[in-house]
Design goal:
Low-confidence stretches: 7-11
Radius of gyration: 12 Å
Shape: globular
Strand order of the largest sheet: 1-2-3-4
Mean pLDDT: 83
Number of helices: 2
Length: 72
């Protein structure tokens, strides 16, 4: 899955494409996070946890993309 959006991180790294490597849903911890890759760097990003995890319910790929747009 690819998110195509201009992202600037730490004012040093700029990219238009973020590859979403995988999304992990840890129900027992009420947490969803993903592994993204940009410019050869992999990073873990928490998407929802706790109350937000309960509110999102059954998330979709579009929910993941929208959440990453909110974060970045």
């Amino acid at each position: 899955m690819i998110l195509n959006k201009e992202i600037i991180l730490q004012n040093e790294i700029k990219t238009n494409i973020v590859n979403i490597i995988r999304v992990i849903d840890e129900a027992e911890y009420k947490k969803v996070y993903c592994v993204i890759e940009f410019n050869g760097i992999e990073k873990f990003i928490t998407l929802w946890e706790g109350v937000e995890y309960d509110a999102i319910g059954q998330w979709t790929d579009d929910d993941v993309k929208n959440r990453l747009n909110e974060i970045f």
